[in-house]
Amino acid sequence: VPLVAARLPKGSHALDLGVNGIQLHEALTAELPLALSTSPNLITVWLVANDFIGGVAYNKYMQDLATLLAQLRSRTSARIFMANLPDLTRLPAFSGDTAPQKAQMLAEIERWDAGIAQQAARYSVTLVDLLKRGSEITTHPEYISGDGFHPSPAGYAQLANVFWQAI
Question: What pTM does this model have?
Answer without folding.
Answer: 0.93
